[in-house]
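Q: I'm writing up a methods section and want to include an example of the input and output format. Could you take the sequence below and give the corresponding predicted structure tokens, formatted cleanly so I can copy it straight into the document?
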Amino acid sequence: MIVHIIHMYNSKHPKTWNESLPYVHHSYNKSLHSLTHRSPFQVGLRFQPLCMIDVVMPHANAQTEYAHAQSKDDATNFIERIC
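A: Here is the clean output for your methods example:
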């Protein structure tokens, strides 16, 4: 499977496959698999590590969960201030 991904990713520059291997490997390990419905990272490490794009542009779900948790804290702080 990884060989096919590397071939597709480096079809224009096949001699540079070794430079893209860490990125392809990380992407493959973050992808959900049909049998487990989890990524290899989630199965092996029990958490989904972030990659650079996750830091720069967080997922909508993660951002919503964070905003929801933060809004609860903000609401609690506001109620404590006005009481």
